[in-house]
């Protein structure tokens, strides 16, 4: 088995597998080390709601046969109201999607080693030159990429990422049948992806119902385990308790039956990225982290980060005399901030503002959204402060004050 490659990638998630696809298509020798066994992949890492949009499908050549359901709209719900926006989308069968990425990259020449748990970087002269896995096995590369997500065994040991516990988001999802998709008094969720803002169900976060055909859907919730969650949380309630509470109280879910083997748990960090690279090394996907903080969109962001890392690696490797030093890999950071998450600071601010609001403000937000024109909403979603201001009310001043005190580290969420 070869032990030297142009690029070594740890992790076969969307970021790592897409990076491998792009590098293999350019003719580079690339190996991907994946913890799970090939026979069961991705049983343990099948953790995404897999909601995405046509732009991602087209940009990365994703085939229709990994789609569970194409959707026509996105629905936002509050405890008593809702807003519907026509927006085509797709709910993927995430396991099939990941297997496609692996197969497609393999066809172009990428090598995959399953049952390969990465444990540590191999360094020489202070630079990473390879990866140690499965105890004492080693593989070497001109460039090494960590795409393992929050575990980040390479990025943490190299001091590239600093994932904060207070920014840790957790989520749980089940797939159900027997859901009342078009319940009177609620939005029609046929061919829709619905996100609900309701602290009774997801304190300091949101919940969702993604229609997957007939009377089936993905149902779940997530929240960040920080001060906002604590402000609204019930004492001793776990994330499983909140999901059970939703199932018991929402008439759409009262007759829902869980599909066997269709439970997913996941986690990510919602924070500003710090360093993303050093000499001969880049961190991509949820290792950075990359997930969109506002609505949790991860697939497209991770795929983009993998593509930007592949472009940065190519910029060095195609020139035989250009060493992949930190300075020469700086293009990855530049591309990430320009292409992957150009408004990340604004979106983090918007996230805190949104999840600090009370439930009754969510009800009024639905009314504000229904009154606003499409251009204002599009600009607000991109972080335009003037457009956001059009949706705010005078009564939001105390909310803005709480957010300002929190941002300054002065507390004051109560």
Relevant terms:
414 residues; alpha/beta; FAD/NAD(P)-binding domain; D-Amino Acid Oxidase, Chain A, domain 2; 3 domains; 8-stranded mixed beta sheet; 16 strands; 27% strand
Describe this structure in words.
This protein is an alpha/beta fold and 414 residues long. It has 3 domains: 4-50 and 94-163 and 271-340, FAD/NAD(P)-binding domain; 68-91 and 166-269, D-Amino Acid Oxidase, Chain A, domain 2 (2-Layer Sandwich), CATH 3.30.9; 344-407, no CATH class. It is built from 13 helices and 16 strands. It has helices spanning 14-25, 54-59, 94-107, 153-157, 227-232, 239-249, 299-317, 330-340, 344-356, 359-371, 374-381, 385-391, 397-407, and strands at 4-10, 30-33, 51-52, 67-77, 82-92, 111-113, 118-124, 127-133, 137-146, 168-177, 192-196, 205-213, 216-224, 257-269, 277-278, 281-283. The radius of gyration is 22 Å and the shape is globular. The model has no long low-confidence stretch (mean pLDDT 92).
Task: Explain briefly what this protein structure is.
The chain has 414 residues and is of the alpha/beta class.
């Amino acid at each position: 088995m070869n032990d030297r490659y142009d690029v070594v990638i740890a992790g076969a998630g969307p970021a790592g597998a897409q990076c491998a696809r792009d590098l293999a298509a350019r003719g580079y020798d690339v190996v991907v080390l994946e913890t799970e066994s090939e026979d069961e992949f991705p049983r343990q890492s099948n953790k995404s709601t897999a909601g995405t949009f046509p732009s991602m499908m087209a940009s990365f050549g994703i085939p229709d046969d990994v789609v569970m359901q194409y959707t026509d709209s996105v629905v936002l719900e509050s405890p008593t109201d809702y807003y519907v926006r026509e927006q085509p989308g797709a709910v993927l069968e995430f396991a099939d999607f990941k297997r496609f990425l692996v197969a497609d990259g393999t066809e172009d020449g990428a090598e995959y080693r399953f049952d390969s748990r990465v444990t540590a970087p191999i360094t020489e002269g202070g630079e990473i030159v390879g990866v140690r896995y499965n105890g004492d096995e080693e593989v070497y590369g001109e460039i090494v990429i960590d795409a393992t997500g929050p575990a980040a065994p390479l990025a943490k040991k190299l001091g590239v990422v600093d994932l904060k516990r207070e920014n840790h988001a957790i989520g749980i999802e089940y797939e159900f049948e027997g859901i009342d998709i078009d319940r009177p008094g609620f939005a029609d969720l046929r061919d829709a992806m619905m996100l609900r803002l309701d602290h009774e169900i997801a304190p300091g976060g949101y919940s969702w119902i993604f229609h997957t055909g007939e009377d089936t859907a993905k149902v779940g919730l997530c929240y960040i385990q920080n001060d906002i969650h604590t402000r609204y949380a019930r004492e001793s309630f776990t994330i499983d308790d909140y999901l059970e509470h939703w199932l018991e109280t929402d008439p759409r879910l009262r007759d829902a039956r869980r599909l066997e083997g269709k439970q997913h748990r996941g986690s990510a960090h919602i924070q500003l990225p710090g360093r993303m690279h050093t000499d001969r090394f880049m961190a991509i996907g949820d290792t950075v982290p990359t997930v969109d903080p506002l609505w949790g969109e991860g697939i497209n962001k991770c795929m983009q980060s993998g593509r930007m890392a592949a472009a940065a690696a190519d910029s060095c490797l195609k020139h035989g005399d250009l060493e992949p030093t930190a300075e020469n890999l700086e293009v990855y950071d530049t591309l990430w901030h320009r292409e992957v998450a150009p408004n990340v600071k604004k979106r983090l601010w918007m996230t805190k503002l949104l999840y600090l609001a009370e439930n009754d403000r969510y009800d009024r937000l639905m009314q504000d959204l229904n009154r606003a024109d499409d251009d204002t909403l599009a600009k607000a979603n991109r972080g335009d402060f003037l457009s956001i201001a059009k949706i705010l009310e005078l009564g939001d001043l105390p909310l803005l004050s709480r957010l300002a005190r929190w941002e300054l580290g002065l507390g004051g969420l109560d």
